[in-house]
């Protein structure tokens, strides 16, 4: 039996390695399977579908706008042709009247001197239908405004002619609204010194004054015209408020808006304070007398 020393000698060529027990590496955490990604071309198709819908909506709105503009253009053309035809008929009638020979049974006692003949010739155009009356009969608001602008140097003449001519219009209230246009939407800065818009605004204020002068005659006013006038007054007041309030508005704006509501009616939106402010800003005595012609205003401020 071999001794322990012998066993060690026999195994001297063999290296004894003491191996430590090794832990196994940790397993990575299990991840839930990710959902399959949507192919890129499907996303592109969705984007194109949304874009196509937007383009289709835009195209429909564009077509509607274009049709509306075409309708407006046709309406303007038809109205222009109608006015041109009436103007030609009026000129033809006046020409025929001018060519009509006068009666020849003039006696010696009715003969006039050369001076009297010249005076009669100068007065002859006055016997013809005045231009302003023809414009009112044809409901030509733009032409009426141009006529007033061209005669602003003689306001007294306009005060004599225009109110009487307005009575000849089929719808005086509608004619006045057409005449003033939309000047009331322009801010006060648009009417600075030497602005070409000043004369147009002055003409619009005057025609509102002339309409108030004949408002006692109770000209028929359709509901649609009343509604349009109410919208004009509300829009005018809204602009004044945006520029600092009705109380801080200029004298021209105050007079114009006061004339409008005095002739066409005071919208419910207007407070008593609004009406008082407009009256106080219109300080001239002549204008105060004009305002008293409106029963609507007198009832409101008394």
From TrEMBL:
It comes from Salix udensis. Residues 1-42, 86-125 are annotated as: Disordered. Belongs to the Frigida family. GO terms for biological process: cell differentiation; flower development. Pfam families: Frigida. Coiled coil: none annotated. Transmembrane segments: none annotated. Signal peptide: none annotated. The keyword Glycoprotein does not apply. Residues 23-38 have a biased composition (Pro residues). This is FRIGIDA-like protein. Residues 1-17 have a biased composition (Polar residues). Residues 106-125 have a biased composition (Low complexity).
